[in-house]
Write a structure and sequence with these properties.
single chain; about 450 residues; alpha+beta; 2 domains; three-stranded antiparallel sheet; flat; Portal_protein_SPP1_Gp6-like
Length: about 450
């Protein structure tokens, strides 16, 4: 009896469709509801839209409901800052060559962008690596469809994917060596397929929360409170602006009796007694206080999200050195480093699974070769490319670094192995030309 069978027997009394009960457990449904709310928020369904109409001057007044989609901009910045430049594979030449083939055919650069997007938005996402028509590929499983099963030691022993389509419930149960699919088409749960699982359980990418490293937490949850207050402040100030242009006429002094002015008179006026006064009274707009509070909230939002103000056009800059740029983006780089660790952990598991699948295709990599494989991230920080190239040139001329290291750190090269092959081809052609010229002279 393996770990999963023992777990099912102890907790679900060996029920054949135990996964249905597992998906319906409170902690799983809580996660589904939280992700649903986050998706709604990103779609523009904000708290400010729930403001109710009210009476003002005896009439129904519909308040302004200004929605700020700052969250999407902040998420896009974090995503692009980390992975706008494709990651670079480094290590043993043979290993890198095989993995680059897989990466290009499976379009893993696009997959990586989707992974960091879901990770930042919803706190977790899952990737299943498999073989299709002889090619290694990956399938992304959304956080509200993926339900990993962990034992008491925190090890994943099974994984359930569950979703509903056209009123039919679909379940896919991943075990270490087999994948089984179920649905309830026709009203009863049934098994529709079962096949061997060559790569093992899906890879979990989790933005670890404070309560558990196994449960993800969205970046949005730290920002929504500030954004709600910014929307509320801006909407209410806009209301007061419109009310300011709807003043109330006030006459100070003795009220004169009489028939008053004819209603059809044009260009008429008021004649007041001595000491009387007439004025239009309106609310005073304290825009300085509004501006101060709004800017404070906005700066807090940038600080908490680790977003440089300069990237959001909130600061004027000119003639900055390389060091000054690094200081401005230091907080963003720290945050990107944390996100990189979450993505890197998942990528390392992906590499292990790709290695296993390559062995089924007859491509075996030794432990020493595989251990050299690494991935390099190049953050999308504004930089002085000319200065970087000059520094690399100096290091190469004094023999401190190899050509491969120069290419790895060059802002113009993303595929180091291909560039090395091209340089080797250029060297061969140059040698052949030189030999031809020497023979012609002789």
């Amino acid at each position: 009896m393996n770990k999963l069978e023992k777990y099912i027997k102890d907790k679900y009394d060996g029920a054949p469709y135990w996964f249905i009960e597992y998906v319906q457990e409170v902690h799983n449904q809580t996660k589904v509801n939280e992700i649903y709310e986050l998706k709604n928020y990103l779609e523009g369904h904000h708290k400010i839209l729930q403001r109710q109409s009210y009476k003002y001057n005896g009439k129904d007044f519909t308040p302004r409901k200004i929605v700020l989609q700052y969250a999407k901009t902040l998420l896009s910045f974090q995503k692009a800052y980390l992975l706008q430049n494709p990651v670079t594979l480094t290590g043993n030449q043979r290993v890198v060559k095989e993995y680059q083939k897989v990466q290009r055919k499976a379009k893993y650069d696009r997959m990586n962008m989707k992974i960091i997007d879901r990770l930042l938005k919803y706190g977790e996402v899952y990737e299943y690596v498999y073989v299709d028509a002889g090619q290694v590929k990956s399938k992304l499983i959304e956080g509200d469809q993926g339900f990993p099963l962990y034992n008491e030691e925190g090890d994943m022993i099974a994984f359930v994917q569950a979703f509903v389509s056209d009123g039919i419930e679909y379940y896919t149960v991943f075990e270490d060596d087999v994948v089984t699919k179920y649905d309830n088409a026709g009203g009863e749960m049934r098994m529709i397929s079962r096949h061997a699982n060559l790569s093992g359980l899906p890879v979990a990418y989790v933005n670890a929360g404070e309560w558990s490293e196994l449960e993800g937490r969205s970046e949005l949850q730290d920002w929504i409170g500030l954004l709600d207050n910014m929307e509320d402040l801006l909407s209410k100030f806009t209301d007061s602006f419109y009310k300011h242009h709807n003043p109330i006429p006030v006459i100070v002094g003795q009220q004169l009796k009489g028939e008053g002015l004819p209603k059809d008179v044009v260009g008429g006026g008021l004649q007041l007694d001595d000491g009387n006064d007439f004025k239009m009274v309106s609310n005073q707009l304290d825009y300085q206080s509004f501006e101060s509070v709004y800017k404070t909230l906005q700066q807090a939002l940038l600080d908490i999200s680790s977003t440089p103000a300069v990237s959001m056009n909130k600061t004027d800059i000119s003639n900055l050195s390389e060091v000054s740029i690094k200081l401005l983006y230091q907080l963003a780089s720290i945050k990107a480093g944390i996100n990189e660790q979450y993505v890197r952990e998942g990528m390392e598991q992906r590499f292990e699974k790709i290695r296993t699948l390559l062995e089924y295709k007859g491509i075996k990599l030794s432990d020493d070769e595989f251990d050299t494989l690494d991935v390099t991230f190049q953050y999308a920080m504004p930089s002085n490319d000319k200065e970087i190239i000059e520094n690399l040139k100096t290091l190469k001329e004094i023999g401190s670094v190899s050509l491969e290291t120069v290419l790895e750190n060059s802002p113009y090269v993303s595929d180091v192995r291909m560039e090395m092959d091209r340089l080797s081809g250029d060297n061969v052609r140059n040698s052949e030309k030189q030999e031809t010229s020497e023979n012609a002279i002789l």
